[in-house]
């Protein structure tokens, strides 16, 4: 299919750019100045590609360049916090602007229809690509946050010579328990501690699976020759655990971190004395 | 002779919501929703915790044995008291021996075997229907003052 109108769009690049940025400003899907350069480059590349391939071959080298640029634009827009709607609007506005110019250039309805059809297919294809790039940009943000959370979620604190404490916040699932256990056991070796305190004040609910994970952690600690105290058991948690029928009798448990520390001092035969 | 007719106790549903459970990440949002319902009917912290723990147990079973399914949360009323009812529906293999499954310490997996019997002790009403090859439905109700 030959379509000369699409090729001649290149001659009206500046006009197209003006209409496009006007449209973008109207529906508020741009932050203005920072994007002008990008939009300009995108228009230039896309019109070049259209001129050379006439829109027939969207796999060509020229289109490849346009797609690369577009993916870059979309993911940077995603990171700058544009909504999916605004992101899609970016390309749809371009189509609108190009259609406007096309209808001025071509008077023959059949040719105009053909030109619009090709333009539509090119832009639709790019819209899908933008969307994928946008999602990927967002997913990058999420996975970075997951990494950050898992990094900060298991700090092992050395509270005294020979005593380490590990506050657990949030839900204890299998993978989390693994990380907690590894960190705790490593710290016991590194600091030469003989007592470990697991504080579960920040665990919202203790069901049988969480309890099982706690019991496993305590057993592993004991195998390392250290004693493990579980602290931060709230009244409602204590009652729930009893009703569930979980047996924690073999484990030293305390209501607060303070009383766990006191127990640790007793075990180490230390006394805290007020200075006279 | 006067005939004393005892009024059948009926429960009415005030609010209802359905949540799909497919992966382990769905557990925490579900628990938070159940907590919201508990707070709305004015449950004490203790009863909220019991309800959430029971939900947590059953939803883990739903994922582990039922391969996922759906959970319906309702806020219910029986005229005297308000409460929350949670229904867990899966299309898994079903439970072959329900008496055995309700026994403390029995597990086909490697868990403590407290899920079903423990849950029953945590809530006021507990109902389980299972059919081999056709899935399991567990319904629990916790009353505000129960």
From TrEMBL, chain A:
Q: Which Gene3D superfamilies match?
A: STAS domain
Which Pfam family, any one, appears in the UniProt record?
A: RsbRD_N
Q: Which UniProt keywords apply?
A: Phosphoprotein
State the InterPro entries in the record: Bact_StressResp_Reg (IPR051932), RsbRD_N_dom (IPR025751), STAS_dom (IPR002645), STAS_dom_sf (IPR036513)
Q: Does the keyword Signal apply?
A: no
- Domain named STAS: residues: 153-268
Note the superkingdom of the native organism. Answer: Bacteria
Give the protein name, as stated in the record.
Answer: Anti-sigma-factor antagonist
